[in-house]
Pentatricopeptide repeat-containing protein
Amino acid sequence: MTMKTKLYHHLQSTTTKNPQWNTLLREAANKSLFTKALSLYLHMLRSGAFPNAFTFPFAIKSCAALSLPITGKQLHCHVVKSGCLLEPFVQTSLISMYGKCSLIDNARQVFDENPQSRKLTVCYNSLLSGYALKSRVKDVVVLFCEMRGLGVEINGVTMLGLVQPCGIPGNLGLGMCVHGFCVKFGLDMDSSVGNCLLTMYVKSGEIDCGRKLFNEMPRKGLITWNAMINGYAQNGLANNVLELYKEMESKGVCPDPLTLVGVLSSCAHLGALSVGKEVERKMEGCGFSSNPFLNNALINMYARCGNLEKARDIFDGMPVKSVVSWTAIIGGYGMHGQGEVAVQLFDEMIRGGIRPDGTAFVSVLSACSHAGLTNKGVDYFGVMERKYGLRPSAEHYSCMVDLLGRAGRLNEARELIESMQARADGALWGALLGACKIHRNVDLIAGTRQVEVLGIAAKKKSAWPSTDEM
């Protein structure tokens, strides 16, 4: 009889007199009806039935899914009172719940209080996942080394916890070591581990490594295709996205909304209107037409491809419009020189109670710049931080320098750059220098060179107009 079978029979022997409660709890939790599961647990207590080691994992899982740490702590008390704390399934659920509720120190305490934890892979895996969620890379590595030192079995779930924080910038070296470990022990054949490694590479910008791994994976599910397609999209490789999407279709793999969002983004980038239309037909055929993320991507695609009428039709037909929807249509009108319409839409969004984010302000500032609405743009820039608490980024400053530069307000543009808390990059000074060239302001550009340009001109000499060119 295996250890797992013995454990099952032991738990069965402690079943309550009302096993139907456990069945109902399990069904609710497995169907992601977590609120219902907790309600059932309360009804169970009120009925006089007593929870056992089969009851708690489903109730605790529901607390974790709903991020209810206080309720989770109350359940922890019930566990202690019922004498179920040493049951591996219960203990693992508690560690996982505390980790998902960002109470990682509580998770560690539960782990440390039971000596059996250091013999069980499931307990280590739960704690590893908790550390990974908090991006505590050092703790993840130390815990993994402890597992290895004690001879605790390593499995695919262990590696998922170890790979996850390796996608954080600066941790690629560690991730490659983990990949090597997976290959050595044959864990890279686990599709979940392979997908996680693939995501790590594309997030780190190592597209070639990601594609090599993708090609070597014996079984490619939809998650695998999505990881590679969206990896290409996020790294600006739009042509690769469309090529891979065609390959995916030829293999008979059906896309989901996540796939199509990445494809539409690439269509927008390339101006591939015909492919975008094919994707729209695919949406209709698959029943994805009401998906708000796809509709936002469609608006952006049609707008960037110059079909503002179609983009507006989709926008107007959306029953609920998020700030992303508004930003897409505002940006579309702005990039095609219809700044007045873009501004009207932005103001309408504000009146409708939609709070603008940084991307929305980039779109409207760019629209103002291209339409010559200088004062309107200055007003928007002013309310960003004052009214909405949004600190302007380099992209916002770049829009403003372009806005003021086009209007010939060069001194204001220079003062704006010099008022930045962070050091302005070459792109900002380049925008100002370009405006100086257009308006033939030799004195201002000469002064700018003395202050900033000398430090970066060596790398970008060709970008700076000479005095003779002025």
Observations:
- The two ends are 88 Å apart (CA to CA).
